[in-house]
Design goal:
This protein is mostly helical. The two termini are 24 Å apart.
Length: 582
């Protein structure tokens, strides 16, 4: 594997991050570069506060998934009760980069927020900042008479967990999904940085997905040994104990180590379903709200049990969802705008109604949990920074992860209990509202019989269901879903698509399960289909990185208008060099 130069912009961003961690009463009585004086655990703790990634992978991954459609393509009304007459709009996208991402092309037009370039630089800047702190901790530990206490161990754990998490997101965005150790050793990974970047000439090796996952595992499992909440005033903004175990459950879900998923998920969730249900999000708290910002505050609160860990990111994902690419028509139907065994009567899921889904007048939908928190830098001028708070780990998603693992180990009774509890959680309303839904036969509790009947196969208007899950064996020959598990996996897929809507996690699910899907583009409905092993399932790294010598994510890039013509990645490198006059 050839050596490559890491994207140089990372170093510049890191310098800015590190500069923000330094403050003093007077710059005259301190060394000019305070990064050289991170010599106390308390300083490292403060550094780690600023070291969480502030880039948001939600929009990039949603555009790359089957959750978003082109509203300019010919499509049917969202409601199946309306006249099924094809229509289309003439909307502009929020930027050319969205056109490129929707067509599964490398993004060359922008490096702004909510692009692959912003993910690449933002996450590596966070990693580099963490590595500065971990190096400082290592130096502190070498001092004579040093004895590690809980504060030191907690800081060490936080750094290791942030580093593992950041690389986990990078490899799932910019590489192929993990298959198994043997097969994934053939897929290019991402550079795993364990030391601070000291020069723009540093060389790194992308290695392969197997090696990247091994290094993530090492950091994760070492962090789990020492994690505790002693350093946190607001634990839910950090890798607290529950968040560490939730991350472990997600990592082992992706590597298909089912028993470990169950172990770490149960550490957080327990097995008392009454207590668990009480800790899930209460939709009744939304019933008297009006403004979208109020919904956002309710969803994104660090004071509710259902949120395990929050992350503050710079993103305008909600604004972008109001343009050409969004949820509408059949994508909206597939996620929530339909009948189901739990929602009898009219096709709109009552949960969505109280979530405050909005539109742009063109039939676009988006959930309130991606609403912005705006920070004004100048109120008079009306300018500032758009923050989108990610609910990175939640009770609901963790419960579905445990359900999946229980399905795979053959504990269908336990899986059913998890799925039913999740269903009950999205039917949590005020007593009066719930009574109204039930009286009008609009809401029915999920049962095992429903799972084995409604979710047994793919029927008309039975979304997210397959007759079988044999396609997963493409990912690994030992990944087998037997017929008795199919209804449970269909139910799981149904719930996960709803729960992770607009978080970007759907893209990861499509990749790790090997589901084929298609984007239809423009009035001519040009189809772009991704098979399970399509090179375009890995986002391409920024073109500046490739121009600097970075190995591309896509060794062979399929021409966007043909599944037959294959273009070598060198074509894009040569094109980039010509554009830059190199």
């Amino acid at each position: 594997m050839k050596k490559i130069a890491l994207y140089n912009k990372v170093l510049t961003m890191v310098m800015a991050v590190m500069a923000m961690t330094a403050c003093s009463d007077s710059f005259l009585d301190k060394e000019p570069d305070e990064r050289t004086t991170i010599d106390e655990v308390d300083k490292v703790i403060q550094l780690f506060i600023a070291s969480y990634p502030d880039a948001n992978y939600g929009w990039v991954c949603e555009l790359s998934s089957d959750n978003v459609m082109d509203l300019n393509s010919v499509h049917l009304p969202a409601s199946p009760n309306a006249e099924q007459k094809g229509t289309h709009y003439n909307l502009t996208s929020s930027g050319r980069q969205d056109d490129e991402m929707f067509r599964f092309e490398p993004v060359k037009s922008s490096t702004s927020s909510d692009t692959p370039a912003s993910l690449w630089t933002g996450f590596y800047a966070a990693i580099n900042s963490v590595n500065e702190g971990l190096l400082a901790l290592d130096n502190i530990a070498r001092q004579p008479g040093f004895v590690a206490d809980r504060k030191y161990n907690a800081a060490l754990a936080e750094g290791l967990l942030i580093r593992a998490y950041a690389h986990f997101i990078l490899v799932n965005c910019f590489s192929q999904a993990y298959k198994n150790d043997e097969l994934s050793s053939q897929d290019v990974g991402v550079p795993y940085l364990t030391k601070p970047i000291t020069t723009v000439d540093d060389n790194y090796d992308r290695s392969n997905v197997t090696e990247t996952y091994k290094k993530i595992r090492a950091d994760l499992e070492e962090g789990l040994k020492y994690v505790n909440n002693i350093n946190y005033k607001m634990p839910k903004w950090h890798f607290n104990e529950d968040a560490a175990h939730a991350f472990a459950a997600r990592f082992y879900l992706f590597t298909r180590e089912w028993d470990k998923v169950i172990e770490h998920a149960t550490f957080v969730l327990g097995d008392n379903y009454e207590t668990l249900l009480n800790r899930m999000f209460d939709y009744g708290t939304l019933e008297d709200l009006y403004y979208l910002s109020d919904y956002a505050n309710a969803w994104q609160s660090p004071y509710i049990y259902s949120n395990i860990m929050l992350m503050d990111t710079y993103s305008t994902i909600l604004r972008k969802a109001r343009y050409r690419y969004s949820q509408g028509s059949l994508t909206a139907r597939a996620i929530y705008y339909h009948n189901s065994p739990m929602w009898a009567g009219y096709v709109v899921n009552p949960t969505v109604l109280v979530m405050g889904l909005g539109g742009n007048g063109y039939g676009a939908y988006y959930p309130a949990w991606i609403s912005e928190q705006f920070e004004y830098s100048d109120k008079v001028a009306g300018i500032g920074y758009a923050h989108t708070i990610r609910r990175e780990f939640t009770y609901a998603e963790l419960l579905l992860e445990r359900a999946e693992a229980r399905i795979m180990v053959g504990d269908l009774e336990g899986a059913a209990a998890d799925l039913i509890t999740y269903s009950e959680s999205i039917q949590k309303f005020s007593p009066s509202t719930k009574e109204t839904y039930e009286r009008n036969a609009r809401m029915t509790p999920l049962t095992v019989d429903m799972i084995n009947s409604w979710f047994a196969m793919n029927r008309s208007n039975n979304y997210n269901c397959f007759d079988d899950w044999n396609f997963v064996t493409n990912m690994s020959p030992d990944y087998v879903i037997s017929a008795d598990k199919v209804p449970y996996m269909n139910a799981l897929n149904y719930f996960r698509r709803f729960e992770t809507n607009f978080t970007g996690m759907r893209f990861f699910d499509l990749k790790r399960w090997g589901i084929e899907y298609t984007h239809e583009y423009g009035l001519d409905n040009v189809k772009y289909t991704l098979t399970w092993n399509d090179p375009r399932r890995a986002l391409e790294v920024p073109e500046d990185a490739i121009a600097s010598g970075l190995e591309p994510s896509r060794p062979l890039t399929v021409d966007s208008t043909s599944t037959e013509k294959v273009i070598p990645a060198s074509h894009f490198i040569e094109e980039n060099n010509q554009e830059k006059g190199k």
